[in-house]
Fold each of these.
Amino acid sequence: MEKRKDLSSGVPELDRVLEGIWAGDNIVLQTDRLDDFLPFAQRYCAYTQEAGRKLIYFRFANHPSLLPEGVPAEVHELDPRGGFEQFIAQILTIIDRNGHDSVYYLFDCLSGLATDWYSDRMLGNFFRLTCPYLYDYDTVALFVLLRDVPTPLASRVIHDTAQVVLDVFRNDDRLYVLPLKVFDRHSSTMYMLHSWDEDGVNPVTQSTVLSEILSATPQPWIDPSADLPGPWTRTFMRAQSVQARIAAGEDPGEDVRALTDRLIRMLLSRDENEDLFRLCSEYFELEDLIAIGKRMVGTGLVGGKSVGMLLARKILARNAPEIARRLEIHDSFYVGSDVFYSYLVLNDCWWERHHLRGAEHFYEQAEHLREKLNTGSFPASTIAQFREILEYFGQSPVIVRSSSLLEDAYGNSFSGKYESVFCANQGDPEQRLANFMEAVRTIYASTMSVEALSYRRHRGLLHRDEQMALLVQRVSGEFQGDLYFPHIGGVGYSFNPYVWSKKIDPADGMLRLVFGLGTRAVDRHDDDYTRVVALNAPMLRPDGSSDEVRKYSQHIVNVIDLEENAHVSRHFEDVARVSDLPIDMFASRDTEMETRAREAGIKDVFSSVLTFKKLLTATPFAEVMRDMMQTVAQAYQHPVDIEFTVNFLDEQDYRINLLQCRPFHFAERLIHVQSPGRIPVKDILLQTNGPLIGQSLATEVDRIVYVVPERYGALPTRDRHEVARLIGKITNHPDRLQTTVLVGPGRWGTSMPELGIPVTLSQIKNVTMLCEIARMHEGLTPDLSLGTHFFNDLVDLGIGYMGVSPERPGSILNTELIEQCPNRLGQMLPEFADRSDLINVIDAADLGGRWIFLWADMLKQQGAIYLSDVCAVGQDTD
């Protein structure tokens, strides 16, 4: 028989969130204080009186009565000290006597029962027997637990058995409710944190508020080994005891510094000779490390990405507290590197990985291993911990980020080499868990990707122990209808490598800003643009007129679509029209467009352009970001790059979420190089007035690989990937030369072959300079790609960038001279001789005594590649 679904908890607004109270529901509330449970108990009891329902109250704890005065109820006073059997027998007898007909039950706080029976296990047994019994009688029962008083041994049983489990928090005198479990019911907002006040029970939509409330609540250890402690758990238990003595002003009883360094070795870094260990030892206190341990799944190191984020926040807290107060509180979790090792062993992948280094068919075997990692299984204990993470976040979107041991370290950024996966985190708990585990598998499998392995091989890291930890973060942002996104996402550099104007001071750094998710800033999107900001001159732009500003502004926004349960792209206009956001903080009106629209009789024209003008002129944002990065860079004694989001609480108050920080592998100085003087035009192969990025250089060139724009532009899209692979064969050929310049149409490294040449890092890693020619189709311009993973790859490998727009004044592309040079392609790769009309491989050795020179001055934003009868290169100048 179908159960009644028209009952109530006494709080109608909460009933709507839970999709109703059903006959048979056992409702468990977890609170920090019993006082926070009383408003629920009072409304629950009052409802029974109003609805004429029988209320039975089991009174057995030593706290004040939960029954409001004047509410009729059948009260049974019990003594749990008589033992488990007698106690539960009395309760079951009373339940039998009252039978069906939707009787309501109220229980005293269950937490004390574990003390009375000297066992959390027996508390779990009590609930496992009582809850189904009540369910079968179609009753409604209300229970309360004090958070963290029962161990996971009891609380997990209670969570598994109850129909409804709610976490209750108090923050600034306001109550919040987070549903952890609602049996057989689901809605798009059910598992979100809700506030309960005079306005009703409403979902909290801003990540800044969510993280502040939940992080203020003491967190239990999510490591289930606490009941069977090993060396890892015993060390943390010891650290907690020492920290408790310190907090009480007592003698800690042991060397705190030694214990702190031991935890650093366990969690953050094991090489005491590294700069990273020095920084961790300087900035992390014992209590910080205990807090990290509490939020870990499994054991092992938390990895480079996690360490970078945590360390940057600690540096700011100590050295720039006024900036630290602007940071959005993070409430991340960490999956230890040992979990990855266990995954390898459990899924029979460890031996294959072990033998991979010496494999004859290295990449083929790596691909087979990647496929196995994509379909592996997890131990039950790990799955249980994943559940706890997802219960904590509710239905807030999360991102699972790679955080390997070598990632984001001094000397190796691994930028974009490993996956990070957004989880929209919608659906019922089982669906959300399945999606989360799939994200973890995807990241584990990415350790065997061609790009990651090529990067490690090129950097001489294949012999290094590379383990994959994970960083699980709440996606920073706000719910806007069916969409979720931050107001601003971006990347920043404490040192600006692109000086397109003499007004720019490279030492002040730069930002790459987008509206919405920051994936638009860190991934290369060739169908759109971002806002590049020089922090000493924020309003300076490479483009000029309003038409150019509109053309080179962001048009596509990355968001999480809650209905599609996916990370998607939307047009800015579509997002802006449905969002309740201060759009004028990010966008400016195009008055020229509005005028033209009026003259043409067009109404309701959308003229907003993402310029971020008000953000950069009416708030201290640019100054704050500059000071933030400089503070961290000074501690690192090295330039840094960061990823961040920004969310506005009102017009002037905003929070910055510092998501990532790592050393930026770029010399903290740009220099001039001596000009070659006046070069005869007839000897210039190409010349540009910018953009240029990288270190200034004047050098002899051994080889130019030139892709003929007209030929490439005529190829069908499917053939362009073949061209990219051929370029890889040329640049990785056994007779490759020391200084190679790659020149081609459109954008190198694009994911859209119609806009350029889709080479991968492994195909260009031996190149000295990349030249993009804006001559593939009308309107295509060289793309700076500042802040993207592609840009970081170029910096990592010391590859310079040069954009050439032949139609611009001062720019030259001398195709006639290039075509006159001998083409070595047929000698290098005879099987591709028929491609000699498409790719010209020009070696200086074939030019009959002439030299090829590259001159690129990053401060002047001028560069040229030219032929000379004299071997002379420019000298560095200050």
Amino acid sequence: MTNNYKDSMNLPRTEFPMRANLAQREPQWQAMWDEKKIYQKAVARREGCDPFVLHDGPPYANGHIHMGTAYNKILKDLINKYKTMRGYYSPYVPGWDCHGQPIEHKVEKNLGPERMAEISTADLRTKCRFYALKWIDIQREEFKRLGVLGDWDDPYLTFTPQYEAGNVEVFKRMYLDGAIYRGRKAIHWCMRCHTALAEAEIEYKDEPSPSIYVAYRLIDDSPWADQAGSDPVSMLIWTTTPWTLPANAFMVVNGDATYRAVRVNGQVLILAEDLLTHVADDLGWEEGDYELLDGAFKGDELTDLTYIQPIHHDRVCRIVADPFVDMTTGTGIVHGAGGHGAEDNLLAIKHDIPIVMPVLDDGTFDAGGGPFKGNVVLRDDHLILDWLRERGTLIGEGNIEHSYPHCWRCKEPVIFRATEQWFVSMEKTGLREDALENLDSFVWIPAISAKRMSAMIAERPDWCISRQRSWGVPIPVHRCATCGEVVANEETFDAIIKLFREKGADAWFTEAPADYLPADVVCSCGCDTLIPETDILDVWWESGVSHTSVLKARDELVFPAQMYLEGSDQHRGWFQSSYLTSIGAYHISPFENLLTHEFTVDGEGRKMSKSIGNVINPIDVVDKLGADIVRLWVTSSDFGQSVAISDEILDRTSEAYRKIRNTFRFLLSNLFDYTPADAVPFDEMDEMDQAELVRLGDLIEKVTAYNDAWRFYMAQREITDYVGNLSNVYMDLSKDRLYSDAPASKSRRSVQTVLNVILQTLLRLLAPVLAFTTEETWEFMPEQLRDAESIHLTDWPELDLSMLDVEKLRGDWNVVRKVREAVTKALEDARDEKVVGKSQEADLALTVDPDTAAILQARGVEALREFFIVSDVSINSQDGLEETLVTVTPSTLDKCPRCWNYRPLSEGAEYRDVCERCAEVLASMPAPVKDPA
């Protein structure tokens, strides 16, 4: 009997696998996308539409991708896929940052010191190029494995001739405008990398440093000379950089501050009155240990004094006043070394004081270091302290833990070092003002990120754009061989642009200037022998000019781009270099929207670190769980906060994925015999089905709104909630009609129509997220239900429900759903108490307020039986009732052996043991199933 009735049922049927096996199956879909050129077709079908170009910030071509780069690329891909489906022309050209010290350092290390001493610059650059190409190929495959679609066959690379020429185009504009100059300034210098660094290449972390007080012996009689008697009088300074003392050339006081003198241990020391207590505490002076001399003088009154340089005793130095002197720490007197500090450098220039810089590029002292020649700065600070101690000028010493600048590449502490460098001026052509005024010309996402970059631009110094390395784009100027003057004009720049476009920047190191410069280019002194500049451009400049080398250079892209998207660290990096070079060259922002995401951290909120052992490799996750799990994790995360990832989080993500996949499988399995011709018009459907379409329409509206507001995690939350409710309610209650009604009955086709619309909609809503799974599901759909060869060639879903009274359906069925929540709870309690087993066995007596009663009664008992999945429902009304009262009793009806519902059995002669509905279905079948009885 059971088998016969089973054969009469419309049981689910699909080959879509329950187990995802994403790690094994996803590469098949990736290969299909490549073979069928799905990306190219997706872009081509939007030609002529409004553009939405998300310009790729280039990752560095060195090493495997990490979770942060995976997050970044997937987020970009999500947006590109979404915008394409919404009808925008959204080509995606991925790029790589290929120049710079890390690659050069790796090649140097591989070659070894002996071969490095012999190799030419041209040969070194060739090896660097091959090294970069190797990692580009590796990273390309890793990004593609994540499901990211783009023009992977023709990415932009910063070492290509066209790109390198773009550097010169921007340099030309800004140089001729007067924004670029060469000067001697104290800038960050990495001793290990042997090069200057810009602010964007500096990382700060806590570092222990010496904290010392040093007496600078005055030569002239001070205002306290009479009281001092034979005791030497000195200015007391405090510093955490003893290695800068050999470069000292002046002292700085605050002109408005009051200074006093104290006698202690046979010396008279001058310091700021407001800091006397602080210094005494720091040096351990008790009240009786020192004598406060009479007299108080403003800093401006001390500027005529001179003193003996603390290391070079044959030098006489002077005192200047400036309000930059901090009156909250130290002694109120700053030791000035123009060669080793940005403010010191500016003050030295302002007061015409020689800039002393006795440190070589490897961090060792030259002869200007005096007794410390050959010693290494920072490392050998203890030698300077010993020297001061022996001469009685070291008044106090200790250690301090403070934030100190480090090189972003080698992670070693850096120093300030005054050298000849190339700079972009923030003031000469009004670049800072122009940049600040344009900050409201684009959209900040999230809005709070505007504060970060605006503060950086407002406070940043001139941008040092020169580097003392080989692997990069050369500073495109020449020097006169006779007088050393810089030779650069429109003619020379145009010649260099032509050279780079034809032969690349490598030609700078192999071609003679006379071979590419116009014959009439000569120095103002008349010399026609010109020497190419040996410095190269900062890599942040290089990547920053992609607006010219890529957006303006490639026909399929537009300038400005609709979006730049990177991590929050790029406010001081690529975002800023792109913005400043675009403002400087074209006076407009290169982006219309600037989206910033935060960093990935572990489950405890800690930065990922090999030393901690909390690093999660994205490719390992892909190989184990699949790329769609990583993609779902990305979409479920709020990019405005630190993005946490852990095994536990991935397990939760996998569980959410399984629910979605199971939903797809259910939907597919119940559409095996459905075609578009079977669709029931929306206005002819059962009201329950119409109500589900209203819920689906609401979902489309919410997800679209959240995506348009860049709140992808909220969109995903809506989808997850919808899928959960769909499974628990509509999919559950629809099984009876799907499995038991006649195959071609209007009631069953009505459900199937809804399921098809739901499947078509969910696949499109999730296509940007679950790129592989939606493609797989699309392939398993009945062919007649597919309208494109790939889910990624479909449009964003729309649902026209204008023929329905959407507001009434939504309102009424929200009330019914609310009642169902109370029913579900009551049925669970009844099962626990053994009153009933399955819900189909239950009769419900509902007591509700009159308004709710009216809505329930309007639906009809048969619809409520189906919706609550019970045997019978009665409705009672009670005024003032604020909750739904539910009474559950066992049904007195018999169980239908075919559909398992508790309904009155058929009284017909042929099928007397099944319910009336099932009897009608059986009778309508081509080969009626005989009653086993």
